[in-house]
């Protein structure tokens, strides 16, 4: 024994990562591992002799890439400085990168780059046409608005970062005289307050109730003597239920916190990864060690729910799980902007071709290359800079309309560049907890085979329970009767439910009691047992106390607990009645696994199906009485299995199944309801009818997610649900894909592990099949997986994806949706809401946001964009006709204020009033969601509609110019006044023809613009001859020109409305 210890110590000197041994207790080796998936192995004496490293063996190769770490208590600064600083940084820019990145983001669009080049050309004298301000001002305006908005957004991010980084935390510190007087004060060690950003690996952090965990910590001690604490993980995995964490037992057993400072120990932690469900590490101590359990880690961004705790920092800053699961926001650009950018390229080609043709027709005389550039600048209005200004102003109007809508109060538009995207969504990716559900559980049903208790008959359960406890006969005596009476059966099932759980009652400061548990289902059941008279009053790891309806306290010793895992789908507990000494094995779990464990019956399967149809989460409860002898046999075999080196978990599970899980007495079936958000069912139905495919991505279990999919009507009635879980090989994946290919009408429910395997092996095939399914539910998804799914769908389908969530774990997914991310302000805080493009207060508001505001925004912007392009094209066509007739001279037809006025005061208000147009009223848009489906095809703004407007512009421009020339008097001044007046009137009439539903602002803008134009003629004598303008000749000539240019279009519009009416017009 001693030689082995010596060998161990010599190895330790050579390699710190090896574990320590102790000659007196070599079998008790302190190991520290993460969650269920971590390989937490116990060693017996023989195993210890082999000295197989746990966890660290994966990382024994020391390489520059190896980020695993072995950190001793009180580590030297040289070691600490190797690790990432604990600084939160979500900013997109800094002082040096702001201008370059913003300019790049703006000028990577051809649209803006074109205007920049045109504006710069005006500084060359030979190319100068008109006022420089007319070219520079609109571009500068657009850039200033964009830069201001980006700077403000980044400033807000910076404030949030500073707030997180400056949060104060207490760290334990050894002082020179820590051995004597200072430590005697209540045995509390010396602490120092430091900001979160100053924390380093190896610090011992003291956390208080409701404090955010600032870095990834190994839990060493808690204020609870059992060494447990609860944390809230809603900002990490989206689940609002509290998670139980256990302190390293050897540290918990220390007399006080101060002894941690003198501990000769070290912690090994594996390299940082994104996986929040796994942690591999060891705790090694050079004094009698103790074996530690799973769940010893507190991840950053979780919150300590109760008590206080001390943790050892193992990962900081960029290496924490929370940061590794957060993707940085990208600059989002709407599809409409990309489509207009494409049209701009076509228009540029048209401009260049037109310039080249005019110079070619002139035989390339003189400085023809200068003439080409002058023509390019003359025709630059073909791509009007005012288009960007109009669209950006339109987006602001849409955002304001959304935020002032009283039916969706407190809705905030955070990214005002994307309202049109809401009108083209084809995939909706939704979180479950807090988004579709309220995460408030309530027990609704208890079924006991021959009798069923609904929510309204629970007082009968309370009555039967009171009778059972009020009776002088014990439960054991009642059970021996030939046919147990009802009160005895109720007694058995209620007491089983009150014992078989992991719930801990915690007394708050105000005297109220809160139930803490890792599953809200369990809390709901314990609250229900309290409501019927059996109250959980005390719970630790060895004892449970209940209070009966008569006020008597009964105590049970906890002998063993078999926690719930996603593989086993059940949890069990062995308890001993402290009064009678009776030992009972109680178990509850999913019907799929419990059906083969409980005794044969004829009602369980049918009732489970009935409850599932109601959207209730079902749990089957069973029990088995054990004799002392049977329990001793089980305990011995279970211990033997627990000290095996290989296949330990499987061996322990086999012992439980072999001895305990056989022919359990079936006590009952519970149905728990997860309350849905308001109007979720009708919202999902409307969205589905609008042609939107809905995916639910959740961190929850498969069974829970399936229940919610049914209760929210995400899955249609009688629709087949195909569950895919625990896939391991490529053959299994291929078989599942083949099955789905032949059954595209089913709903796919898949777990995160299988999803990752599908994406790794058959990414394209899986996405192609999955995107055809009507509904997909992905369970046990990490935040990164959610974001990857969003990107994958968008990349593969090239369709618009909207992501909606309410927790910090949804931020990556929301930001990955570069189409539109919606955050819900909910119980999990505002993190998702702040990161989203749109913030709403409940899921049902999505209907109006998409089907009304989104639809209108897209239709209006498409119409506005095409009309502004038409406005630029028509004047360019007139310029081309004018130049062609007057010897191909690159001379401007309209100069100075006429050009400025045409793009602004003479047409801007009526054209911009199109942002208030609507084809149907709000009620019809929500009543017929199929109207939304029409928009997703992108026909409102397409190459077809663009070329139609191109033809209209060519016809009208040519008609106005040629007619003006035909009616040409004697002076050039007259052709300008006639053609320009006809052009303005033509545009006002065209706006009127485009309007479907008149708004008071539209009428005012049309009349006011016409009035302003008439008045301005008097102040522009260099362009208008007043004596000619007020004559009858002028009036009839202008009237004829306008009639020739506009009347045919009115006729075509009337014919089209009769022959091929729009879908919306059929409803009016």
UniProtKB/TrEMBL annotation:
Q: Which residues of this UniProt protein bind ATP? A: 431-433, 522, 564, 588, 617, 698-700, 780, 786, 809-810
Q: How does it sit in the membrane?
A: Multi-pass membrane protein
Which spans does this entry mark as compositional bias, Basic and acidic residues? 18-30, 58-78
Subcellular location(s) of the protein = Endosome membrane; Membrane
Q: Provide the catalytic activity annotation.
A: a 1,2-diacyl-sn-glycero-3-phosphoethanolamine(out) + ATP + H2O = a 1,2-diacyl-sn-glycero-3-phosphoethanolamine(in) + ADP + phosphate + H(+); ATP + H2O + phospholipidSide 1 = ADP + phosphate + phospholipidSide 2
Query: Could you tell me which residue ranges the P-type ATPase C-terminal domain spans?
Result: 834-1061
Where does the record place the catalytic residues?
A: 431
Q: Which GO terms describe its molecular function?
A: ATP binding; ATP hydrolysis activity; ATPase-coupled intramembrane lipid transporter activity; magnesium ion binding
**Cofactor(s) for this UniProt protein:** Mg(2+)
Q: Main localization of the protein?
A: membrane
Report domain P-type ATPase N-terminal positions: 80-129
> Which intervals carry biased composition (Acidic residues)?
36-48
Which CDD domains would you find in this protein's record? P-type_ATPase_APLT_Neo1-like (cd07541)
Q: Which GO terms describe its biological process?
A: endocytosis; phospholipid translocation; retrograde vesicle-mediated transport, Golgi to endoplasmic reticulum
Q: Which UniProt keywords apply?
A: ATP-binding, Lipid transport, Magnesium, Membrane, Metal-binding, Nucleotide-binding, Translocase, Transmembrane, Transmembrane helix, Transport
Chain coiled-coil ranges? none
Q: Which residues bind Mg(2+)?
A: 431, 433, 806, 810
The record's region (Disordered) falls at: 1-78, 175-196
Q: Family, per the entry?
A: Belongs to the cation transport ATPase (P-type) (TC 3.A.3) family. Type IV subfamily.
This chain belongs to which protein, by name?
Phospholipid-transporting ATPase
| Organism the protein comes from | Postia placenta MAD-698-R-SB12
């Amino acid at each position: 024994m001693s030689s082995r210890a010596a060998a161990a110590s010599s190895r330790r000197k050579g390699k710190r990562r090896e574990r320590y041994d102790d000659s007196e207790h070599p079998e008790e080796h302190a190991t520290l591992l993460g969650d269920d998936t971590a390989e937490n192995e116990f060693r017996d004496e023989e195993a210890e002799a082999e000295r197989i490293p746990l966890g660290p063996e994966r990382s024994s190769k020391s390489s520059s890439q190896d980020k695993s770490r072995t950190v001793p208590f009180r580590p030297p600064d040289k070691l600490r400085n190797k690790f990432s600083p604990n600084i939160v940084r979500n900013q997109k820019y800094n002082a040096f990168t702001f201008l370059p990145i913003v300019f790049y983001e703006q000028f990577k669009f051809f649209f803006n780059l074109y205007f920049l080049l045109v504006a710069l050309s005006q500084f060359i004298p030979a190319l100068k046409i008109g006022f420089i301000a007319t070219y520079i001002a609109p571009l500068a305006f657009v850039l200033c608005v964009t830069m201001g908005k980006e700077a403000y957004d980044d400033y807000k991010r910076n404030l949030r970062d500073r707030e997180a980084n400056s949060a104060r935390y207490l760290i334990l510190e050894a002082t020179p005289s820590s051995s004597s007087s200072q430590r005697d004060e209540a045995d509390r060690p010396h602490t120092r307050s430091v900001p979160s950003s100053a924390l380093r690996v190896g610090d011992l952090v003291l956390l208080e109730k409701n404090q955010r965990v600032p870095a990834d910590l190994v839990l060493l001690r808690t204020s609870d003597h059992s060494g447990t604490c609860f944390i809230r993980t809603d900002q990490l995995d989206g689940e609002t239920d509290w998670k139980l964490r256990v302190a390293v037992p050897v540290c918990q057993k220390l007399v006080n916190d101060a002894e941690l400072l003198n501990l000769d120990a070290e912690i090994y932690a594996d390299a940082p990864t994104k996986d929040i469900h796994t942690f591999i590490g060891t705790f090694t101590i050079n004094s009698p060690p103790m074996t530690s359990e799973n769940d010893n880690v507190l991840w950053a961004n979780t919150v300590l729910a109760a008590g206080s705790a001390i943790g050892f920092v193992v990962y900081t800053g960029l290496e924490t799980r929370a940061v590794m699961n957060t993707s940085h926001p990208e600059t989002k650009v709407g599809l409409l902007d990309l489509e207009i950018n494409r049209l701009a390229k076509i228009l540029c080609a048209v401009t260049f071709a037109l310039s080249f043709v005019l110079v070619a027709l002139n035989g390339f005389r003189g400085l023809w290359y200068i003439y080409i550039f002058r023509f390019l600048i003359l025709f630059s209005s073909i791509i009007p800079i005012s288009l960007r200004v109009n669209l950006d102003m339109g987006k602001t109007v849409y955002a304001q309309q959304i935020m002032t809508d009283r039916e969706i109060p407190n809705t905030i538009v955070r990214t005002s560049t994307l309202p049109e995207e809401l009108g083209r969504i084809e995939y909706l990716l939704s979180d479950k907890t807090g988004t579709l559900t309220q995460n408030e559980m309530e027990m609704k049903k208890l079924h006991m085979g021959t009798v069923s208790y609904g929510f309204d008959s629970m007082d009968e359960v309370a009555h039967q329970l009171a009778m059972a406890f009020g009776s002088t006969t014990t439960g054991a005596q009642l059970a021996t009767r030939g046919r147990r009476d009802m009160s005895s059966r109720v007694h058995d099932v209620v007491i089983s439910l009150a014992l078989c759980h992991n719930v801990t009652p915690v007394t708050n400061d105000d005297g109220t009691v809160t139930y803490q548990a890792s599953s809200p289902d369990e809390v709901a059941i314990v609250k229900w047992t309290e409501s019927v008279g059996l109250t959980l009053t005390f719970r630790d790891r060895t004892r449970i106390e209940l209070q009966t309806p008569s006020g008597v306290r009964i105590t049970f010793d906890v002998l063993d607990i078999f926690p719930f895992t996603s593989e086993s789908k059940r949890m069990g507990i062995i308890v001993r009645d402290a009064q009678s000494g009776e030992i009972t094995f109680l178990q509850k779990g999913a019907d799929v696994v419990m059906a083969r464990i409980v005794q044969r019956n004829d009602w369980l399967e049918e009732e489970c199906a009935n409850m599932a149809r109601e959207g209730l989460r079902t749990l089957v409860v069973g029990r088995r009485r054990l004799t002392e002898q049977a329990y001793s046999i089980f305990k011995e075999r279970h211990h033997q299995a627990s000290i095996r080196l290989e296949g330990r978990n499987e061996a322990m599970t086999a012992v439980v199944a072999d001895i305990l899980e056989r022919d359990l007495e079936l006590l009952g079936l519970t149905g728990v309801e997860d309350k849905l958000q308001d109007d979720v069912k009708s919202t999902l139905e409307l969205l589905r009818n609008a042609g939107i495919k809905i995916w639910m991505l959740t961190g929850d279990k498969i069974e829970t997610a399936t229940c919610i999919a049914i209760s929210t009507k995400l899955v249609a009635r009688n629709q087949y649900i195909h569950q895919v879980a625990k896939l391991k090989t490529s053959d299994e994946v291929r078989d599942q894909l083949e099955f789905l290919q032949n059954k595209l009408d089913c709903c796919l429910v898949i777990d995160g592990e299988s999803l990752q395997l599908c994406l790794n092996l058959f990414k394209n095939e899986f996405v192609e099949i999955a995107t055809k399914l009507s509904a997909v539910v992905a369970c046990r998804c990490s935040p990164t997986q959610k974001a990857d799914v969003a990107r994958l769908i968008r990349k593969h389908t090239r369709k618009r994806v909207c992501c909606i969530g309410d927790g910090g774990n949804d931020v990556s997914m929301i930001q990955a949706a570069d189409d539109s991310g919606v955050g819900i302000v909910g119980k999990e805080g505002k993190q998702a809401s702040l990161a989203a493009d749109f913030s709403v207060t409940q899921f049902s508001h999505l209907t109006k946001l998409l089907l009304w505001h989104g639809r209108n925004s897209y239709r209006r912007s498409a119409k506005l964009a095409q009309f502004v392009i038409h406005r630029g094209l028509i004047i360019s066509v007139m310029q081309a006709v004018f130049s062609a007739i007057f010897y191909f001279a690159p001379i401007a037809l309209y100069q100075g204020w006429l050009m400025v006025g045409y793009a602004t005061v003479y047409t801007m208000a009526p054209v911009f009033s199109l942002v208030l147009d609507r084809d149907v009223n709000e009620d019809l848009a929500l009543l017929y969601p199929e109207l939304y489906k029409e928009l997703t095809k992108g026909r409102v703004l397409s190459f077809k509609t663009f070329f139609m407007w191109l033809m209209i512009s060519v016809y009208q421009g040519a008609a106005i110019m040629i007619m003006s020339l035909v009616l040409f008097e004697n002076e050039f001044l007259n052709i300008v006044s006639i053609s320009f007046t006809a052009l303005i009137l033509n545009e006002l009439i065209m706006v009127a023809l485009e309007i479907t539903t008149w708004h008071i602002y539209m009428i005012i803008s049309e009349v006011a613009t016409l009035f302003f134009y008439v008045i301005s003629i008097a102040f522009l004598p260099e362009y208008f001859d007043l004596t000619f303008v007020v004559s009858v000749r002028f009036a009839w000539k202008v009237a004829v020109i306008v009639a020739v240019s506009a009347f045919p279009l009115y006729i075509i519009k009337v014919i089209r409305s009769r022959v091929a009416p729009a879908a919306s017009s059929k409803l009016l």
